[in-house]
Amino acid sequence: MCGICGYYSKKQEEKRELLKKMGKAIEHRGPNDVGYFFEGGLGLCHRRLSILDLSERGHQPMETLERYVIVFNGEIYNYIELRIELEENGYVFHTGTDTEIIPAAFDLWGESCVNHFNGMWAFCLWDKQKKTLFCARDRFGVKPFYYCMDENRFVFASEIKAILCDDTINRVANEPIIYDYLTQGLVEHTDETFFKDIFKLPPGCFMTIDSQMDIEIKQYYDVQFSNLTKGRLEQKDIEEFKELFTDSVNVRLRADVPIGSCLSGGLDSSSIVCCMDELLQKEEKNTEQHTFSFCTEDKRIDERRYMEAVTKQTNTIPHQIFSSETDMKKELRELIYYQDEPFSSTGMYASYCVYRAARQSGITVLLDGQGADEILCGYRKSRVYYVKKLLNEKHYLKAFREFCGSISQVKSSMFLKNDILKLKKILSKGDSGSTEGYLKKDFCEKESGYDYSRKEDFQHNDVYVVSLPALLRYADRNSMAFSVESRLPFLDYRLVEFCASLPLEKKIHGGWSKYIMRKSLKMPEVIKNRKDKIGFATPEDIWLKKERNSFREIFKAEEIRSAKFVDVDKLLQEWDKILDENNASGLFRYICLELWMREFQVRAE
């Protein structure tokens, strides 16, 4: 995993100093090496984090076949198999990297080469003959690709902060995105960003740019979920799920550096740790797996007994990370800097601490569980959608049983409240935890808000709109802030497509979410039988209450950059009321927005 950036000028302008600044801005993504390529009005930069073939042969930008130059961020997990296939077609390779596979695949298969890749990627390929750029992003958008362009130039990078090194690019707030963020908590639901003039290449898409700055974006992949509701889980389903998952973990162990795992104590991370342990033992490497967990003394979200159940059953070296509201407040601006854009909760800080601990322990690659909730209906709201769908199809008895099963799983008032909030959100447009009342009236009247419920397929929405895109951005920035690569077994496209083909009943059964996963994978029984869901959570409400005065001071400054959107006087007047009503997440978004605008010197239009 690395960082890439570059520019393409219609006027054939060479901008060496700009490119060096851009590369420096994302040095944290690749501290092991830096490389540049210039040709006419084109400049490409690569920051390398060495994972495969640690020799100098992996240097980028990589020139191959006397025609192509590539900068590549990510991993092609099936590069060994692809290399064999390409060699059979006459291609000769000079490195042990997966990077060299891409230009050869493009030369043989053209744009459809991306359909042959299994992995995560964002790359830019320069064709010297045609004078065109071919840029592509993986199927689910694990790896980022941002760009800004006009009639004379195209600028791209792995992170927005690199693009902002170009002083001619306006740092103007994107008002519709800010409205959706403050009212609904949405952050990655379109191809726009919080910066008005900066966009992202959507997941499962590629783009071509020619010398006249004509751009064409095509979608090459879009997973479709089954519309079937009922279908009994069979043994063959269990066996296929287990086989696909195990192989997904196995190919993600390909690296020439130490690998560990995130461990929250939930189903997803626990299944990865157990599977990885089993694979390592089969290979007789006698390798101890490092696990990293964010922990808290807050009994509502303390998962240490589940984490310890996993580490006791496996050959692991556990690392438990604790933090406090003081630490979070102290490092919030730094976290915002690495994230590039606002985020929805202090939960991002937990992930940030975990990846920092991994780097401090000498671990360069971490396996993580993002994607499981989206493809296996792991969210509590998924069960509500399922019951609603059963009722619409007149399966009344089944709907009643599922409803009773779901209710029986709610153990604490904290989670019951969350379920009620999610149900309100599903049955009405908007976020039931919204603090919309603290926005300026003229701002609200101008914006209509994103209707994420317009698509009936809630699973597709979770994968491409509401949930997964945000999680992937958070994980990428947090991991790369400390030069750590995050790998996600649940987003192997083969596993995703298999899960997408299943009727809902095989994922939700008797009120149990991720039903097929519980039946298929090895993990301690105490985790397999868990009925709650927490994840890398922080005691956000307690943290904000303890730091209520210091955070309030943010909005007492002489200049409030978000004042065009926020009714600052009313917000300050009712600050304590918001916290006392347990709407910490809504208030945090206002805090995060203001600090983001200050950090990146963003102005309202």
UniProtKB/TrEMBL annotation:
<dbReference type="InterPro" id="IPR051786">
    <property type="entry name" value="ASN_synthetase/amidase"/>
</dbReference>
<dbReference type="GO" id="GO:0006529">
    <property type="term" value="P:asparagine biosynthetic process"/>
</dbReference>
<dbReference type="GO" id="GO:0004066">
    <property type="term" value="F:asparagine synthase (glutamine-hydrolyzing) activity"/>
</dbReference>
<dbReference type="InterPro" id="IPR033738">
    <property type="entry name" value="AsnB_N"/>
</dbReference>
<keyword id="KW-0061">Asparagine biosynthesis</keyword>
<comment type="pathway">
    <text>Amino-acid biosynthesis; L-asparagine biosynthesis; L-asparagine from L-aspartate (L-Gln route): step 1/1.</text>
</comment>
<dbReference type="InterPro" id="IPR006426">
    <property type="entry name" value="Asn_synth_AEB"/>
</dbReference>
<keyword id="KW-0436">Ligase</keyword>
<keyword id="KW-0028">Amino-acid biosynthesis</keyword>
<protein>
    <recommendedName>
        <fullName>asparagine synthase (glutamine-hydrolyzing)</fullName>
        <ecNumber>6.3.5.4</ecNumber>
    </recommendedName>
</protein>
<dbReference type="Pfam" id="PF00733">
    <property type="entry name" value="Asn_synthase"/>
</dbReference>
<dbReference type="Pfam" id="PF13537">
    <property type="entry name" value="GATase_7"/>
</dbReference>
<dbReference type="GO" id="GO:0005524">
    <property type="term" value="F:ATP binding"/>
</dbReference>
<keyword id="KW-0547">Nucleotide-binding</keyword>
<keyword id="KW-0067">ATP-binding</keyword>
<dbReference type="GO" id="GO:0005829">
    <property type="term" value="C:cytosol"/>
</dbReference>
<comment type="similarity">
    <text>Belongs to the asparagine synthetase family.</text>
</comment>
<feature type="domain" description="Glutamine amidotransferase type-2">
    <location>
        <begin position="2"/>
        <end position="212"/>
    </location>
</feature>
<feature type="active site" description="For GATase activity">
    <location>
        <position position="2"/>
    </location>
</feature>
<dbReference type="InterPro" id="IPR029055">
    <property type="entry name" value="Ntn_hydrolases_N"/>
</dbReference>
<dbReference type="InterPro" id="IPR014729">
    <property type="entry name" value="Rossmann-like_a/b/a_fold"/>
</dbReference>
<dbReference type="InterPro" id="IPR017932">
    <property type="entry name" value="GATase_2_dom"/>
</dbReference>
<keyword id="KW-0315">Glutamine amidotransferase</keyword>
<feature type="binding site">
    <location>
        <position position="98"/>
    </location>
    <ligand>
        <name>L-glutamine</name>
    </ligand>
</feature>
<dbReference type="InterPro" id="IPR001962">
    <property type="entry name" value="Asn_synthase"/>
</dbReference>
